[in-house]
């Protein structure tokens, strides 16, 4: 049983995480603070329901997995200097989540 939030995404096959990332990317209101709907809870909830439907998962699980993935992305982003120096390999999902760097 997975209890820690950071463990959620790592227990899911990379393929499912890739699908979730692609689905979230379609809804800027879920990650971009400059999107007018970012602060409209009803719109974000609607978006999560759509993401969940497309992923064949519950909205709560998708949201939890997304939080875990977003946290990992932020952590990996801080490690870019080590990656550039060849001391560390890049995280496989980093390029798929790079759209977050352009979001406000």
UniProtKB/TrEMBL annotation:
Pfam families: MADF_DNA_bdg
InterPro entries on file: MADF-dom, TF_Adf1
GO cellular component: nucleus; transcription regulator complex
Domain MADF positions: 19-104
Protein name as annotated: MADF domain-containing protein
Membrane spanning stretches: none
UniProt GO BP: regulation of transcription by RNA polymerase II
């Amino acid at each position: 049983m997975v209890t820690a939030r950071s463990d959620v995404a790592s227990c899911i096959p990379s393929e499912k995480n890739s699908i979730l990332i692609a689905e979230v990317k379609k809804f800027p209101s879920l990650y971009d603070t400059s999107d007018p709907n970012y602060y409209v809870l009803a719109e974000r909830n609607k978006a999560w329901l759509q993401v969940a439907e497309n992923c064949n998962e519950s909205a709560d699980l998708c949201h939890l997995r997304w939080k875990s993935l977003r946290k990992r992305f932020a952590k990996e982003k801080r490690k870019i200097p080590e990656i550039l120096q060849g001391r560390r390999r890049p995280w496989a999902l980093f390029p798929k989540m790079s759209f977050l760097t352009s979001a406000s």
